[in-house]
Every structure is written in C-alpha cells, then in structure tokens.
Amino acid sequence: MYLSTGNDKHFDAIDLDPYGCPNRFLDAAVQSIANGGLLLVTATDMAVLAGNTPEACYAKYGCVPLRMKCCHEMALRILLHSIETHANRYGKYIEPLLSISADFYIRVFVRVHVSQAKCKYSMR
Q: How many angstroms separate the CA atoms of 46 and 104, rounded?
C-alpha cells in the first residue's frame, strides 16, 4: 500500500482483515485510499478491546477500555477513534457507515474523505 500513495495510484476500496490488531496497516491504508474511498477494517482482538487487558489496549489503540456491559460498543468506538486519528495525520477524516460486532471480532465500514478543515472538528 505504501507504493500506492501517489495521487494517480489510490485505491477506491481497501479491506484490512489481519489476525489481531489492524493498527500496523492503518497508516498505509489511509495514505493510499482515494478521496471518498471505502475502508473496511476488522479487529479480532476483542479480549484487548473489551477490557481484559487495559494496558495492552492502551499500547495498541491509545485508549483504556472499561469492563462493563457495553464493552462491544466501546470496542467499536475505540477502533473508529484509532482509524480517525490515523486519517487526521494526513488531512483526512472518516464517515462511519456500518459497524458489526460478532463473537470474537469487530468490523467497521468507513468512507474516507479529504478535508483539512473538517479534521479540526473530528474531536467533537
């Protein structure tokens, strides 16, 4: 994906489905996706995202989850936040379209847009 960061080589859709944490691929994916492109991301480390090991979650995602009934929703929000922070580094922001939480994994579908001005509002 790093070879496709030029404007004429961007992808319209990228599907990241690694084993475990997808963060090591997010930087390349965000740089190589076209404006308005579809990014699909799967995270299979629900034990980390659901609060069983908060230290590992902080190291991987930069967030500390709480162990409570809504742990799956919190896991989705942590993953979306991680994608958003990677996108903001390159003047892009995300628009969440669909999120799925099933058994031991979560999956999000987001549209990536380019706008320096809207990146400033992403923390809201």
A: 5
Cα 122 from Cα 84, distance rounded (Å): 8
Q: Global pTM? A: 0.88
Taking Cα atoms as reference points, which of 38, 36, 94, 45 lies closest to residue 71? 45
| Contacts by residues 99-106 (CB-CB < 8 Å, ≥ 24 positions apart) | 101/72, 101/73, 101/75, 101/76, 103/46, 104/44, 104/46, 105/42, 105/43, 105/44, 105/46, 106/42, 106/43, 106/46, 106/49, 106/72, 106/75, 106/76, 106/79
How crowded is residue 104: how many other Cβ atoms within 10 Å of its Cβ?
11
Whole-number Å distance between alpha carbons of 47 and 60: 13
Report the Cα–Cα distance between both ends of the chain, in Å, rounded.
Answer: 30
Per-residue pLDDT reduced to its tens digit, 55-108:
999 999 888 888 888 888 899 999 999 999 999 999 999 999 999 988 888 999
